[in-house]
Amino acid sequence: MELVVLDQLLRDILGADTDYGTRILSHRFLEKKVLIVLDDVDDRRQIKKLVGKSSWFVAGSRIIVTTRDIKVLAVEHETRDGRFEEWPDEVRLFKMDGMKSSEALQLFCSHAFGKVLPPDDYLSTCEQVVSALRGLPLAIEIIGSSLYRKPENVWKATMEKLENPPDQELHSKLMISYEALDNEAKEIFLDIACLLNGREKSTAIYMWDACEHFPEEKLEVLIFTSFIKILGDNRLWMHDEVRDFGRKIVCGGTIIDSAKGSRLWANKEVLDVLRSKEMAKNLKVLNLTSCKSITKTPIFSEGMILERLILEDCENLVEIDSSIGKLKQIVHLNLKGCNSLKALPDELGSANALTEIVMKGNGQSFNLQESITGLTSLLVLEIVHVKIVDPLRIGKSESLESLILSECTGIKELPESCQFFQSLVMLDLSRMDVTKLPDSIGDMKKLKVINMEYSLISELPKSIGKLEKLEELLAKHCEGLQGEIPSEIGTLSSLTILDLSFTRISSLPPTLSKLSNLQTLNLEFCHELRELSGLPKSLVTLHGNRNYTPVAVNFVEVVCGTSQGNYEISKYRQLEKIGILRVL
């Protein structure tokens, strides 16, 4: 539990910063019998902030703390002879022993065979493996998973390694499973251990795709071998012991030289490494997240093999050195939270291996150069919440798949040169000042999603009907969008979601019935809608409005459906005609 996470926890629960939140907790706990569990504590300040003093609680309260460093429970005293530590009377120490042999065998077999008991001919071997693992649950889980459906010779080799481990017990056992991974899975494992633990999975996949690591397949391997898990919010998770094991490999604490020094995650070490060409030559990932002291990136040498540069939340960064153009292998540049950055160097346009640029500001002026949007390998360009100072100039990029300009001000219209985005799949113009889409949008034949929610777009071009692969058209809260929707929308044969809620449209064309794959139609708060006819039979959900009394019809509440689902229309203001609906 890091202190920054603790601070965020108190803000989320109590709406207060750490100090004030601590005072609130002390009052709320007063004279209450409580059970509190603090897991994986690594700093005694965490205990002080969350549970304070024993006087907060009444007799019978219990506080359980799990930690890998027993010193966090000690109280420090200072005397004439120096400082010493002791454990308060209220603290009872309990050392976790290994699992009982019978339970350990069941856990191992559940991962090695998918059931709690082994086949008879494997019983003796399994008992030897479990005995060698000394009841360590994490090692049992990972070794067991790595042996699933493996031939006898792999089992034998694993046993030999377990019988002759190096000094560090758990890490030596984890090394056995790590060495069984292929190179791509090892790279992904080390990335998560050093940089991506707790990060969103889809963001990481973009990077790994660019490195040709086959991420979906390799993540399955890492999950299957119990090295990682995917949490419910689609974030990557790795046990602290496994994380430390991976970082030890990169720090050079193992015999694996190829990984040594390949990733940096501690800000204080970065500048020393970059100043040394010899030390920096193996650097593949440089993570400077939340480095408040950096105002300009270091000078990058031409021989560096850096692939990923992460400058997230470097809020005082004002300049990226032009030498970044020398990084011929860089594929990912993360600039989220770089709120002082106003431009990217023109030399970045020479980084032809670059596949992803992610930038999120706080509304500052920003110059987006044409040379950068035209990078030949660029797949993802995400520029969010900045003011584009010059007219947007877009280079000829035939590789770009995702263009996200959400919350960017200063742009009234997109240039016609967008026609060069032949590979574009995702276009996000939400919360922008753009008033119309270019006619050339019809040339983006691979486009699947257009998000223009909360934008100033006032009309849809007829050329939008050429987008045969478009699946989602999102125009929620485009309050300038009014009148009729062009009939060409009926040719969008792949469209599944059409969201026109909170707009001023007055009618939908009869061609709407031709949208054979449309499943969701959102017309909430479309107060001026006068006619609704020809709904496609594929429709599953129709969102209407419950809060307004119709003018032309005294009261309308129709619930209708198909064999696939239900949809509902309720109480439309000025609703004059309802078309092909089968009333249930």
From TrEMBL:
Pfam families the UniProt entry points to: LRR_4, NB-ARC, WHD_ROQ1
Top-level taxon of the source organism: Eukaryota
The keyword Repeat is assigned to this record: yes
InterPro entries for the chain: Apaf_helical, Disease_R_plants, Leu-rich_rpt, Leu-rich_rpt_4, Leu-rich_rpt_typical-subtyp, LRR_dom_sf, NB-ARC, P-loop_NTPase
Keyword Repeat on entry: yes
GO molecular function terms listed in the Swiss-Prot or TrEMBL record: ADP binding
Annotated ranges, domain Disease resistance protein Roq1-like winged-helix: 184-250
Domain NB-ARC: from-to ranges: 25-79
GO biological process assignments: defense response
Keyword terms, alphabetized: Leucine-rich repeat, Repeat
Identification of the protein by name: Uncharacterized protein
Source organism phylogeny: Eukaryota, Viridiplantae, Streptophyta, Embryophyta, Tracheophyta
